[in-house]
Design a protein that fits this description.
40 helices; four-stranded antiparallel sheet; about 900 residues; six-stranded mixed sheet; alpha/beta
Length: about 900
């Protein structure tokens, strides 16, 4: 087929990929692949080189953007859009991994345990090439083991189904490394190829036509010259494989072709011709500079949005035209095209020249997303009107109407109370619960009345646990009545949740209610109820009602009642406890032992760990009585020691040496956790023998870290080494510890790592970094950084200053989760004020009482759950459980 040099460039379709690092750096980090991919793409577009038009050279896929899906889709698109006269050139620089089963090109998300789904296999690659219906495919791989592709894609390069050629050009044989030079300038193969493409090395007959044999000869010569200057470079052999009808024409160097034609048709003397060429060159260069500057200006002033990897991404540039350095990522959204009215069919969204793209994206939002955004920005009346229009439109899909009804409950007003009452009888439990929560907010009397009917068995069935967790209102008579009803209800509502809601709202609860709760206490609730009784009598006394008498249960010998007496700091010693001390069951015995040791004069309790039979031994010493020993009452055959920790820390005489040995020797994770927490409560600073950071039990890991923080700061380095993976547990622990400047810098560098590393680093820094640094995280281009920072930032002591400095939008892009951050900050400020208003001896109790259970309907987010954990820890260190 005859063609001109200018026309040949328009038959090329170019895809270049460069990946220097893989997640977790399980393969050595490479310095040059990303730059090599850019240089290949740039060289192919050089006007005096191959002169391939920019629209036919896809923007290089480099770094974290070179995911498996992105590379696969980009190559498939180039092949699909190539006709019978076109040539596809695919270039890859990075890591190549050969396994027993296949060969893989490592993308930015390559996982050694799942290469089939995170990398491009030779089988996948061959399938794409085999499906091509174009003139030719030239695949150039600059990576280790690259020739191994042929072994796993035989039909793609050995059978010519259509076209003129299918050729693989690889920088190394199978089983052979592809070496970078120490100066960081790339591989000798890649550098030589770039020089050929941009015309620095002339190959062939010098007339611009480059056949495949010319390209091979030029590469061999250039590589040999460079290797002679690098005698220590390990062996590496370039090989090629493929099928073709005849030596195919693969490149046309437009500059060389024009020069040859110009001299062949000259009518002037060589001297005059040179003068004309110089004058023309100056004009051409000037024109090119003008065009290039203008083109850069146009590209830089354009924004567009596409979908990649399930996320919308905003770029500066143009989706069909590019220049070196473009496109530049501006914003990665936390959602994809599912929120657009029309879905992916609306993409790409290209903004007019000089205009931001975000308003266009918002214009394409579906109705529910627009309503949610209005609510997030504080426009509740607009959100209310939008949601009503959605759920009243019968032509709207059910799921959208369902979401609109849930959103409506968050923005409803007092006039909507009758509608919300009807919704409390809806078939969907989510709608019923959301409507009841809205009623509590808009009309506590109506909300409490509906809830009371349900407690009495006349309702439609509500999750009262979820209602209690989100109850955020001042106490009224109706709310107090509701809480009293729950205290006596047959449903198993945890006592601690009722108490937390009562303290949060300021409801006092009377002795009758407390007696009902005492009758169904669990081990973990006794401390909470005892603290509530103290809080009620000290902070919330009633002038019109005398409650000096303690609650009176029906059975004063019940272990629940005795345990409550043990927790109360001023309970009288009861002679009847002596009968309980001979009870054979640990469930009844332990409360009696603890109550006697705390409240009976002359009593003392000693704890010992017997390592031979491996059990805890308690010895009760009483004036004038023989010592009483209680063996093996905790652990698998007894009660849970962890449930009684706050009380044991108060009652037991500390023996740090024996307890430290017990924590090291026992194999029971629950007992070891309990021992470590007792050591922390007693202020033990002895270096602990053993490392439980990777224990199966999360409570044990936490207790170990809290103990080691008392000893030294080496635990910080251990935690830093463990963050950046899927386990967020270590991230929370590290974020709670004040970090040295050097460690903060180390964590900051992780913001440029894998998705997991970025998320962990963003959370840790959001918990303790400065206002300016946290605002930078919350306005980051990367959605995963913004999302994690938003979850964790309520922990930060400067949250009020952060919110004051945080804009509503950043470069026209809405900051997702802003309303949730504001809500958590408001709740935190209210809790701190409440905490300051109660006696110091009750503050640890109040912190422990707060419900921090994760969940959709919980009051506290992730950052605040970590804040509560740290405040409890600091409270124990400041006052010590033993001093309460």
């Amino acid at each position: 087929m005859r063609t001109t040099a200018a026309e040949f460039g328009r038959t090329m379709r170019v895809v270049s990929v460069g990946v220097g690092a893989v997640p977790g750096n399980w393969l050595p980090k490479l310095e040059s692949p990303e730059n090599d991919a850019k240089e290949i793409a740039r060289s192919l577009k050089e006007p005096d080189g191959c002169a391939v038009p920019g629209e036919f050279v896809d923007p290089p896929l480099i770094g974290m953007f070179a995911t498996r899906k992105a590379v696969h889709d980009r190559l498939k698109a180039a092949i699909d859009h190539s006709g019978p006269g076109d040539t596809v050139l695919f270039y890859f620089a990075g890591h190549g991994v050969q396994t027993e089963d296949d060969f893989y090109l490592c993308t930015s998300e390559a996982d050694p345990s799942d290469l089939g789904n995170t990398a491009i296999s030779g089988t996948d690659f061959g399938g794409l090439i085999d499906a091509a219906n174009c003139r030719g495919v030239l695949a150039v791989l600059d990576c280790c083991n690259s020739a191994a592709v042929v072994e796993h894609a035989p039909s793609a390069f050995t059978k010519l189904r259509t076209g003129e050629f299918r050729i693989l050009l690889s920088s190394a044989r199978a089983g052979q490394k592809s070496w970078e030079t120490a100066d960081g300038k790339g591989t000798v193969f890649g550098r030589t190829l770039v020089e050929i493409l941009n015309g620095a090395i002339v190959v062939g007959q010098g007339e611009g036509a480059v056949y495949f044999s010319d390209l091979i000869q030029g590469l061999e010569t250039g590589i040999a010259e460079k290797r002679s200057e690098l005698p220590d470079l390990p062996p590496q052999e370039m090989v090629f494989s493929g099928s073709y009808i005849s030596d195919p024409l693969v490149l046309v160097m437009r500059g060389q072709t024009l020069d040859a034609v110009r001299f062949a048709t000259a009518r002037y003397s060589p001297r005059q011709l040179r003068r004309m060429v110089r004058a023309s060159a100056v004009s051409i260069v000037g024109a090119l500079c003008f065009v290039l500057i203008t083109w850069y200006g146009l590209i830089d002033a354009t924004q567009y949005v596409v979908e990649e990897g399930g996320h919308l991404i905003a770029y500066r540039g143009h989706p069909r035209f590019s220049l070196p350095g473009y496109p530049k990522p501006l914003w990665r959204f936390s959602y994809g095209s599912e929120r657009l009215d029309g879905g992916a069919s609306k993409l790409p969204i290209i903004a007019p020249l000089g205009k931001p793209v975000m308003p266009l994206v918002e214009a394409h939002f579906d109705r529910l997303q627009l309503a949610a955004q209005s609510a997030d920005e504080g426009d509740w009346s607009g959100a209310r009107a939008s949601t009503m229009g959605i759920f009243n439109d019968r032509n709207t899909p059910f799921q959208t109407r369902f979401g609109a009804r849930l959103l409506f409950t968050e923005v409803a007003v007092v006039d909507d109370v009758p509608l919300l009452k009807r919704w409390t009888h809806d078939d969907r439990s989510e709608i019923r619960l959301a409507a009841l929560r809205a009623l509590f907010r808009l009309s506590p009397k109506v909300g409490a009345t509906v809830a009371l009917l349900d407690v009495g068995g006349l309702g439609t069935g509500f999750s009262h646990v979820d209602i209690l967790r989100r109850l955020d209102l001042p106490c009224t008579r109706e709310i107090e009545t509701y809480l009293k009803a729950l205290a006596g209800a047959k449903a198993s509502i945890p006592v601690s949740l009722i108490l937390d809601a009562s303290v949060r709202s300021g409801c006092r609860l009377d002795n009758e209610t407390i007696t009902k709760m005492a009758a169904r206490l669990q081990w973990s609730d006794a401390s909470a109820l005892a603290g509530f009784i103290e809080w009620r009598d000290k902070v919330k006394p009633r002038a019109d009602q005398l409650d000096a008498d303690a609650p009176k249960p029906a059975d004063a010998s019940d272990w629940r009642w005795i345990l409550l007496q043990a927790y109360l700091p001023n309970a009288p010693c009861d002679p009847a406890w002596a009968d309980v001390l001979i009870h054979p069951q640990p469930l009844a015995l332990v409360p009696g032992v603890l109550a006697t040791a705390r409240h009976c004069p002359g009593s003392q309790l000693v704890i010992k760990w017997n390592n031979i039979p491996k059990f805890i031994e308690l010895t009760l010493l009483q004036d004038g009585k023989p010592p009483q020993q209680f063996k093996d009452i905790f652990g698998n055959r007894g009660v849970d020691l962890v449930a009684f920790l706050p009380l044991i820390a108060v009652v037991v005489r500390p023996d740090l040496r024996d307890l430290d040995a017990a924590a090291a020797l026992t194999i029971d994770a629950r007992l070891r956790t309990a021992f470590l927490e007792l050591l922390v409560a007693w202020g033990d600073k002895t270096e602990f023998f053993g490392d439980f950071l990777d224990a199966n039990d999360l409570d044990l890991r936490r207790a170990y870290v809290e103990h080691e923080r008392l000893v030294d700061d080496t635990v910080i380095g251990k935690l830093v080494a463990r963050i950046g993976r899927s386990d967020i547990f270590y991230t929370s622990l590290l974020g709670r510890i004040p970090l040295p400047a050097a460690t903060k810098e180390q964590v900051t560098t992780m913001l440029k790592g894998t998705a997991e590393a970025r998320a962990s680093a963003a959370c840790v820094l959001a918990m303790q970094a400065s206002t300016a640094d946290v605002v930078s995280l919350l306005t980051s281009v990367e959605a995963d950084i913004r999302s994690e920072a938003a979850d964790c930032v309520p922990y930060n002591a400067s949250i009020a200053a952060i919110l004051a400095a945080l804009p509503q939008k950043h470069d026209q892009f809405s900051i997702e989760g802003l309303s949730l951050i504001k809500e958590q900050a408001r709740l935190k400020a209210a809790f701190i004020s409440q905490l300051a208003a109660i006696p110091p001896e009750l503050r640890t109790w109040r912190l422990q009482l707060a419900d921090v259970t994760p969940g959709l309907f919980g009051l506290w987010g992730r950052g605040m759950r970590d804040w509560f954990a740290e405040q409890q820890y600091q409270s124990r260190l400041a006052s010590g459980i033993v001093n309460q």
